[in-house]
Specification:
single chain; mainly beta; 2 domains; six-stranded antiparallel sheet; five-stranded antiparallel sheet; 2 helices; 17 strands; 11% helix; 39% strand; globular
């Protein structure tokens, strides 16, 4: 395992419920019926692209998300994969590329041999995780407004400090609230105001969780903060 692919494992706070155990670094890749998520450089789009992410584990205990952002003025990619458990705690981070390394790893804006090798190592790690967790690619719900998404008979609404997941089984049926989570921690507080909004919401039946991409607005004098990704499970 390359040092560049060292996994950043976060330790749970004392007394908190245990997180899903990280996969043994030396575990073999287990074949699954569906292909594993993967990262690749798409020359036609001049960017790194993730296929099969976000994805939820078959048992609904965690999700893997592709966190891809820039670095402000230079516009270099800043990318990693996060595994988040059903309580929205970060379990594992898989680094892909840091903006400050881009010029060295991608001469003339195209991945060189070192980055190609690293991407292959990332994909091997994703295949191992898929073999262990049986990751299922999720589909986007339709974002109707900045704070409202629908799909799969679900309504996901956000007030800024609270997010509700509601099932609407039929137009004339009563709503069934499946989850309510407090989201004050999703806000960004610094010297500038950064209004937050849905960048996307994902789900896949019958797994009982949604993945939410929260984006933030910036101004001419304050760059927008990086997206934050969250997992919300429901009963």
């Amino acid at each position: 395992m390359s040092n560049k692919l060292a996994l950043a494992l976060l330790v749970a706070c004392s007394g908190a419920p245990p997180k899903p155990a990280p996969v043994d670094n030396h575990a073999d890749v287990v074949a699954r019926d569906m292909p594993a998520p993967r990262i690749e450089w798409v020359a036609a789009e001049n960017r790194l692209v993730a296929t099969g992410l976000p994805a939820a584990s078959r048992d609904g205990k965690l999700a893997a998300v592709w966190v891809y952002g820039g670095d402000g003025g230079r516009g270099y990619p800043n990318a990693h994969v996060e595994l988040r458990d059903g309580d929205d705690r970060l379990v594992q981070t898989i680094p892909v590329v840091a903006a400050n390394d881009w010029e060295r790893l991608a001469p003339d804006g195209k991945p060189g041999p070192e980055l190609d090798k690293h991407i292959a190592e990332v994909n091997h790690e994703l295949a191992r995780l898929h073999g262990h967790y049986d990751l299922v690619a999720m589909s986007p719900l339709k974002v109707m407004r900045e704070d409202f998404a629908i799909g799969d008979d679900l309504l996901v609404g956000w007030t800024g400090d609270r997010l509700d997941v509601v099932r609407k089984p039929a137009p004339d049926a009563p709503d069934q609230r499946l989850a309510r989570v407090h989201t004050e921690a999703w806000q960004v507080h610094d010297t500038c105001e950064h209004p937050a909004y849905f960048g996307g919401v994902w789900h896949v039946d019958p797994i009982r969780l949604v993945v939410v991409d929260v984006r933030y607005r910036g101004t001419d004098t304050c760059w927008e903060p990086a997206d934050s990704w969250h997992v919300v499970t429901f009963r």
